[in-house]
């Protein structure tokens, strides 16, 4: 579904990403973990088309999208929930969904999103800027799902959430993957994320340091010590 | 008392013109993220366009439409030729370029039309008497045009898909792109709207007073002040800001004299910003 080959790139002169290779199949969840500043968000931006300078190749369902602008990638089926500023604060909830382009049968899709996130429906005329952290994250998720994406990139979707809401979020992500969506899940709660993932990758200084089956990584002593934190 | 009411009335009229110019400034600032110093000269261009159109067609209405289209077209061109090229640089480069563009437009208009003042041939109509107040029927028409303009801008921004996209881009341009919103149609619409609104301001000003190559440039600082006063990026705020400045200027004129009335707008601006740093209508968003 999504392949990333020899991806390098960054914001200015220096490469933040230094040779990334990853693949993601339909219905698969791939957790990307790693320390702060490892380049996880930068990788997400490279995939969705927001990184100013990239080399290498990104393909979606076999077609090269490396040079395609972000808005066309979004319409081609890449959904994205950024780590921060992931809703239009000045727009109402319903406007946040209506404004998305490249949606077939928009009205119907909005109804589906409100069925999926009933809390949003109750406040549909409220400005997104007035939402709580949890509601905001739901709206960000719903907005990214509007296009029925084949691949969704989630950048730390549970970072601002309470443990209970995080569990709820992981449950939704698993359900989404069951319907065939490929999920690139960047997470600080790496153990919990790996527990619902098929595969995992651990990034360090712009590279993939470790990659493998999720359960293998969870059992891996080295991964545990270096990146996942002991315990939990 | 009549004197006061008449000053108030004339303050409202100049306030509406300042407010429209401020509206153009605030639209561009909200989406393209810089203060467009060419706004005033787009007004002038609109006024000359209307003058030319009126002469050619013999109709003020058609003339006005010509001026409006000229303003919109000029603004779109300024985006395509200048501001789009600078979009990835700092806002300062766009601001400086807009100052250059302002000089360029003004010089061009001076060359084309000369530096003499021109006037619109409006029918002389007897003022309406309301209590002791004399009201020019044309002023009522101008006020109506200004308000209709504001309402149309509001409808476009809040009730049409392209307006929703414009507000999304204003709010968060990167999120807009990953939501599939192509920047180009949004920017074209923005510039066409800002140019048309500037032109309307210029046409009204030209009809109320005289048309000269400097007319718009002189309005630039009050227009910026109105935009800031209203809370930058807030369309209704810009009009209200313009009204506050226009009225304050006129009411102060008997005390400070004509020469210093511009200074009054800045005193008002300072006072309001001391109390409300984000302007009258600006609101502090929650953390995004
Ligand atoms: N907009 C930017 N411009 C320049 N450099 C940036 C930008 N964003 C991030 N960086 C740099 O890129 C590197 C990787 O940052 P990135 O945000 O990808 O890390 P991350 O793994 O997502 O970290 P975190 O866990 O804190 O979110 C860091 O050194 C950071 O300083
Ligand atoms: Mg990050």
UniProtKB/TrEMBL annotation, chain A:
GO molecular function: ATP binding
Domain ABC transporter residue range list: 2-230
UniProt xrefs under PROSITE patterns: ABC_TRANSPORTER_2
UniProt keywords, alphabetically: Amino-acid transport, ATP-binding, Nucleotide-binding, Transport
Domain of life where this protein originates: Bacteria
Listed SUPFAM superfamilies: P-loop containing nucleoside triphosphate hydrolases (SSF52540)
InterPro entries noted in UniProt: AAA+_ATPase (IPR003593), ABC_transporter-like_ATP-bd (IPR003439), BCAA_Transport_ATP-bd_LivF (IPR052156), P-loop_NTPase (IPR027417)
Classification via Pfam families: ABC_tran
Recorded family membership: Belongs to the ABC transporter superfamily.
Name of the protein in question: ABC transporter ATP-binding protein
Species assigned in the record: Mycoplana rhizolycopersici
From TrEMBL, chain B:
Domain of life where this protein originates: Bacteria
Compartment(s) of residence: Cell membrane
InterPro entries in the record: ABC_transp_permease, BCAA_transport_permease
Membrane topology category: Multi-pass membrane protein
Transmembrane segments: 7-32, 60-83, 95-113, 140-157, 186-207, 219-248, 255-275
Keyword entries, A-Z: Amino-acid transport, Cell inner membrane, Cell membrane, Membrane, Transmembrane, Transmembrane helix, Transport
PANTHER family: BRANCHED-CHAIN AMINO ACID TRANSPORT SYSTEM PERMEASE PROTEIN LIVH, HIGH-AFFINITY BRANCHED-CHAIN AMINO ACID TRANSPORT SYSTEM PERMEASE PROTEIN LIVH
Stated family: Belongs to the binding-protein-dependent transport system permease family. LivHM subfamily.
Name of the molecule in the record: Branched-chain amino acid ABC transporter permease
The organism's taxonomic lineage, starting at the top: Bacteria, Pseudomonadati, Pseudomonadota, Alphaproteobacteria, Hyphomicrobiales
């Amino acid at each position: 579904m999504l392949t990333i080959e020899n991806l390098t790139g960054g914001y200015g002169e220096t490469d933040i990403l230094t040779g990334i290779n990853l693949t993601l199949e339909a219905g698969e969840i791939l957790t990307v973990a790693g320390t702060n500043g490892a380049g996880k968000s930068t990788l997400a931006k490279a995939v969705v088309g927001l990184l100013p300078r990239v080399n290498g190749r990104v393909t979606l369902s076999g077609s090269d999208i490396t040079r395609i602008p972000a808005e066309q990638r979004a319409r081609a089926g890449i959904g994205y929930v950024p780590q921060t500023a992931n809703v239009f604060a000045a727009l109402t909830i319903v406007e946040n969904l209506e404004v998305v382009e490249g949606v077939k049968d928009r009205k119907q899709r909005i109804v589906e999103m409100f069925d999926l996130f009933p809390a949003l429906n109750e406040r549909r005329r409220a400005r997104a800027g007035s939402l709580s952290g949890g509601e905001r994250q739901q709206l960000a998720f719903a907005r990214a799902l509007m296009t029925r994406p084949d691949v969704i990139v989630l950048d730390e979707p549970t970072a601002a959430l309470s443990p209970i809401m995080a569990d709820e979020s992981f449950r939704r992500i698993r359900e989404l993957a069951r319907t065939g969506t490929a999920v690139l899940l960047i997470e600080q709660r790496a153990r919990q994320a790996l527990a619902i993932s098929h595969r995992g990758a651990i990034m360090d200084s712009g590279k993939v340091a470790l990659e493998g089956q999720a359960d293998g990584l969870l059992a891996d002593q080295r991964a545990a010590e270096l990146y996942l934190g002991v315990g939990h | 008392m009549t004197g006061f009411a008449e000053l108030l009335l004339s303050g409202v009229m100049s306030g509406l013109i300042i407010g429209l110019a401020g509206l153009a400034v605030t639209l561009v600032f909200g989406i393209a993220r810089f203060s467009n110093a060419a706004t005033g000269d787009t007004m002038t261009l609109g006024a000359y366009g209307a003058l030319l159109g009126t002469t050619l067609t013999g109709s003020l209405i058609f003339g006005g439409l010509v001026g409006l289209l000229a303003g919109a077209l000029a603004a779109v061109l300024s985006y395509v030729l200048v501001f789009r090229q600078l979009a990835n640089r700092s806002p300062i480069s766009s601001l400086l370029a807009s100052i250059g563009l302002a000089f360029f437009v003004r010089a061009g208009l001076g060359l084309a039309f000369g530096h003499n003042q021109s006037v619109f041939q409006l029918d002389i109509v007897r003022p309406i008497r309301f209590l002791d107040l004399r009201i020019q029927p044309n002023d009522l028409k101008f006020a109506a045009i200004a308000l209709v303009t504001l309402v149309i801008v509001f409808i476009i921004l809040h009730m049409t898909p392209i307006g929703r996209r414009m507000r999304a881009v204003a709010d968060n341009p990167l999120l807009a792109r990953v939501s599939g919103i192509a920047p180009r149609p949004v920017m074209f619409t923005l510039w066409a709207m800002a140019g048309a609104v500037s032109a309307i301001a210029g046409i009204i000003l030209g009809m109320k007073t005289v048309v000269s190559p400097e007319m718009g440039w002189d309005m630039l600082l009050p227009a910026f002040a109105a935009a800031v006063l209203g809370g930058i990026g807030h369309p209704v705020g810009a009009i209200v800001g313009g009204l506050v400045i226009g009225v304050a200027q006129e009411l102060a004129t008997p005390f400070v004299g004509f020469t210093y009335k511009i200074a009054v707008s800045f005193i008002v601006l300072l006072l309001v910003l001391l109390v409300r740093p984000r302007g009258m209508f600006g609101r502090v968003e929650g953390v995004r």
